[in-house]
Amino acid sequence: MATQNSMKLLEVCRVSPLFDSPNTATELSLPLTLFDLFFFKSTPIEFLSFYSHTHLDDHLYFDSILSKLKHSLSLTLAHFLPLVGKLIWPPNSQKPIIHYTPGDSISLTIAESDANFDNLSGHHVTEARDFCPLVPHLETSDSEASILTLQVTLFPSKGFCLGIVADHAVLDGKAMSLFLDSWVYISKLEKLITKNNATLLPELTPFFDRTVVKYPATLDSMFSNRLLAMNSRRSLKSFDFEVPADIVRATFELSRTDIEKIRKRVLSWGDKNGETKTNTSEPLHLSTFVLTFAYTVVCVAKAKEVESNKMIYLYIIANFRSRLDPPIPANYFGNCVGVGGIGAEARELMEESGLAIAAYRIIDGIKKMKGFLNEADKLIEMVTREKEVEGTQTQPEVISVAWSNKFRDYERDFGWGRPKKVELTNIHRTKATSMVDSKNGNGGVEVGMVLKKHEMDRFASLFVTGLQSL
Fold first, then answer.
1. pLDDT of residue 379
2. What pLDDT, on the 0 to 100 scale, is given for residue 278?
3. Of 168, 172, 181, 258, which residue is the catalytic one?
């Protein structure tokens, strides 16, 4: 059962874009692309950053932090107007659109909690529901949906948590990372004290032009028609994504040394199993992502004690900006991810060569992403069809991964130090695995896990003993 702690609401305010520019005085509309529609009404992105400050019992100091946050946020939003707008679905539009109107603003909640800050910002096992009070609610209705909302939660004498929730139909992890990096950049500009404008570096300036995203128009109409068939009222009200009461979360770290040991083990086992050999002359790319996910997958399969003949499907979501033909700018703001999936029988992953099999299967899945758009019609059908009855023995086990260790989340310093801990809490609902770069900056990775308590206990033991045996 989740710990019962009190949460005191201190303030709920609105933050508007602040910029000496005609852009904020002009309406803006952007259509959702095929890549956006894949995440329509999906679980929002929920990102928490914990900052440790032992002298936050001084409310004047906390107020100064809030003042700087609000001001820099207002300046940053002027560059990211779609985040301030609303998602709407006009009667004359086949699909939803992002619409910004001058005067739009986002909600910012300020709260105070007496929960255990060290527990929430640590690596150890914690009940997933304990994080819920730190996650702000994203307002949605039948007619419109907010795109971004924030919450700052004070833990007196300990620190504070910055919670950000964004509609996944509007942006992916890469775009969210761009927004956060831009906000940090503006927050640290000294000239903000006297001027109500701030210029972003070119690489931080969002690119909104949807026309650069090329794909067959038939896919757009196919997706839109299926959405309308399922949702004739054009409702934007989100589904109810409850955090299950029986799950816990924990963070596990792989150092650069650990990752290199995994790499050597995969290579040494690679020739022992025919399925692990490549069919081309291309050199193997055993990236940090591949090795981390492979090791995690094997530990999960064993921790869940998956039946040996059951299929386990590994789903990978990757940035597709450079993979499109033609490629689109790295600072494109929206969704642009490809999905790759590949299966393996549980028994394969539990064998001695299971780590190598998992790594090579993941590589195969990444390679298959090149033809992602060629099979997009199948994915559209999968995403839009009604839920099937759960609980059958034939259902496959699914292990997916969210976020990226390339986003450098621990390098973001608004001016009061880097985060003590970052968490992606939407995995509490999706049951995905999250990956972020290591706080230690040593090239390692922090793996966020969500499992039932008895499964997490087994996973923790397998994770540690597995590394010791490498």
1. 83
2. 47
3. 168
Residues 196, 150 share a domain: yes
pLDDT, tens digit, for every residue of 80-99? 999 999 999 999 998 999 99
Q: Count structural domains, the chain.
A: 2
168 is catalytic: yes
Answer yes or no: do 177 and 51 share one domain.
yes
CB atoms within 10 A of CB 157: 12
Same domain as 284, residue 218: no
Query: Is 413 among the catalytic positions?
Result: yes
Q: Is the pTM of this model over 0.90?
A: yes
3-state secondary structure labels for all residues of the chain: CCCCCCEEEEEEEEECCCCCCHHHHCCEEEECCHHHHCCCCCCCEEEEEEEECCCCCCHHHHHHHHHHHHHHHHHHHCCCHHHHCEEECCCCCCCCEEEECCCCCEEEEEEEECCCHHHHCCCCCEEHHHHHHHCCCCCECCCEEECEEEEEEEECCCEEEEEEEECCCCCCHHHHHHHHHHHHHHHCCHHHHCCCCCCCCHHHCCECCHHHCCCCHHHHHHHHHHHHHHCCCCCCCCCCCCCCCCEEEEEEEECHHHHHHHHHHHHHHHHHCHHHCCCCCCCCCCCHHHHHHHHHHHHHHHHCCCCCCCEEEEEEEEECCCCCCCCCCCCECCCCEEEEEEEEEHHHHHCCCHHHHHHHHHHHHHHHHHHHHHHHHHHHHHHHCCCCCCCCCCCCEEEEEECCCCCCHHHCCCCCCCCCEEEECCHHHHCCEEEEECCCCCCCEEEEEEEEHHHHHHHHHHHHHHHHCC
* Closest C-alpha among 421, 411, 419, 408 to residue 448: 421
Domain boundary among 170, 203, 230: 230
Domain span at 41: 7-230
**Which residue among 142, 285, 413, 454 is the active-site one?**
413
Give tens-digit pLDDT for 308-359: 999 999 999 999 999 999 999 999 999 999 988 899 999 999 999 999 999 9
Q: What is the CATH number of the domain that holds 356?
A: 3.30.559.10
Is 1 domain-assigned?
no
pLDDT band at 391 (very low <50, low <70, confident <90, very high): very low
